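User: My instructor asked us to take a sequence, write out its structure as tokens, and then describe one feature of it. I'm not sure where to start. Here is the sequence I was given:
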Amino acid sequence: MKNITTFLFLICSSITFSQVKGRVTDTKKQPISFVSVYLENTITGTTTNTNGDYELALSKTGNHTLIFQMLGYKTVKKTVKINSFPFTVDVSLTEEEVVLDEVVVSLEENPANKIIRNAITHKNKNTDKFAEYTADFYSRGLFKVKDLPKKFLGQDIGDMGGGLDSTRSGVVYLSETVSKIAFQKRPKNFKEHIIASKVSGEDNGISFNQAEDVNFNFYENSFNLADVRIISPIANGAFGYYNYKLAGVFYNENGKLINKIQLLPKRKNDRVFSGYIYIVEDDWAVYGADVIVTGAQISLPMVDSLHIKQNYNFSTKNKAWVPITQTIDFKAGMFGFHFNGRFSAAYSNYNFSPDFNEKTFNNEILSFAENATEKDSTYWNTIRPVALTVEEISDYKLKDSIKTIRKSEKYLDSIDTKNNKFKPLDILSGYTYLDSYNKWSLSISSPIENINFNTVQGWNSSLGINYRKTLNKKGKRFGMGADVNYGFSEKKARPTAYFNYQWNNTTRPYLHVSGGIATSQFNQKEPISKFWNTISSIGFERNYLKIYEKTHAKASFSQEVTNGIRMFSSLEFADRKPLFNTSDYVMFPKKNVDYTSNNPQEPNNFTLGFTPHHMWTFSVGANINFGQKYLSYPDGKYNITSRKYPSLYIGYQKNFGSGNSEWNSDIIFSQLYQHINLSNWGEFSYKAKGGLFLEQKDIPFMDYAHFNGNRLLIAPNNNYLNNFYMLPYYKLSSNDKYAELHGEYNFKGALLSKVPLLNKLNFHLVTGAKGLFTAGNKPYSEFAIGLDNVGIGKWRFLRVDFARSNFNGKNENRVLFGIKL
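Assistant: Let's start with the prediction itself. The structure tokens for your sequence are:
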């Protein structure tokens, strides 16, 4: 039986491996990468790799006409008679002769403009020809580094999987994906089912070469690239962003006239391409694209450039020009790191009359076939449409052999033994003991990193111990730990402990239990960071942090109950006590400036606090992401929030059991948020919050609705939609109904790029508006205008805002600085 099976396998293998192979070079014998190679009158074939090598699978001998097509080169038709396999066909391509002699240049209009207008006019007609289809999709990702530093910020970088040579240069990422894709124009839908996925040196084999991420459709007015919208050169409003020049024309192998149009951006930093787009005469369809966008244009300073090439082929079945190959080459660098790479894709086996039904498309846009990440090399050698290069073959062999060693218990234990060695400085910097093979770790936090100052505790620090354990590859894990915080002026220690457990990465049920004695801000959203409070206190004698003590026990649980809806619930018991200042230390005393008390309601009262009490708090809520899509990976479900629809959070909180019914309270609250991409006009985001106490009472102050104010010159947490620019922290806290609105428009260079001289700076204009409405008070409002992407060259981490507030007829102005990485 075993011999029969082997015999059948060899027969199948010989059929599958039947192939035409060879190399494609230019007239100087240099290899040409990503040349399309296919049979005449088909749109299914293969492409050459970086070395110019190709392999085209055929099942029959006889006469065949092969087509070799590449932008910038004359297409070659070659008829061969194949008697047996494998069969070798080497081809040399000559550069395309692009001429202008055959073009009648009109004195009335730039001929390139006329061609682009025709392409824009015929967009719907051309795309309707492939409004629905299924296809096979193949992609490969290659990521290389040069002269990689050994350390970054004091941390060892390692050998990146073992692919580096003695100069610390080489391949750090190599992956392949084979999948089935389905597309629908109206309504717009895209779906991918991954048949096989492979990552060099990785067990799980999950690559991030997702088909939709590289679905760069030039027929659309704009498309997503690196999370920004790029204006297509044949967008409806393209003439507002591009100038065009007819670089020349040529005829393809079937006698079709192809126009080569140069793209000339009107403004340097607009979200547009430079390069060339090729348009078929009379059909006015895209024949190909060879375009470049810079990192400055897509707000990624570390990226030098992205170079995209697309090749289209003519389908006789539906008389349409459809994409068959695409490459994305990139270069990047920063902090001493230098990267380059290529992501390539090939489309084949188009079906333009698919049998779609109402169940074909749903919220799941990516899925994996069973065992898709476990295919062996024999399988890949039969299905791979683009031959591997020598470098890629070597990387697979090297990392696969290294992987076997590095996942062994002996190797992991040896690495852990080295890294787990305790050093005297670990007492101050923190220490972690790791058991990589059994997937658990034990960490002791750094007391130096946790040092901060407040007027209640004085200088204080925390020392904690944490244990984490991973139970499987699908997200099952737990953790536990304890922490002790000690205030040197207060001379008091406060211990706390926690335990958490997650069951999986699909619905992500998560349990968290904690308890102990802790200090808590009156605003539980903690808008004041301990670090910035330390700076403002010891440097400027401004103690904005207001805290109280609570001895508590709390349990919380959350889980996605259905796609797009995640439920949250918690129950806490807390014994609350007031705290008072014990330290007046200041590094730089200010005249006529004194610390305030720890009482947020009476800043000048240093002796009176709230009445000690205990309270039970129950809360329940739901976060609803309308139109949420998701990716189904072998190890879990990963959600993609829709930008077409907002996200809504609704919740209810009940405080009870205090022993005084007047202190009990009930509040319902909600939040609506959305981030809207406005193509080349930037981004608009808004967040609306509101709440209502079911009965107005004189409840404990920490149970009021508090709002995230700011009195620093630093933008808090770099979260502009969640905080006010300059609202005093507890000035408008409410125990009644309230509403707050936050809006921000980042033009992303849409305006400043049109201003001479300023456009060279590539700053982004930002405007913002905020409002707070509380019962019994006049509205509080803020308006701001600022500059984002501030810096020089690739160093653009700064944002500067000028804000103006208004309350009760009084205005306040302030300049704020934000730092983002």
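For the description part of your assignment, you could build on this observation: The chain has a mean pLDDT of 90. Try explaining in your own words what that tells you about the chain.
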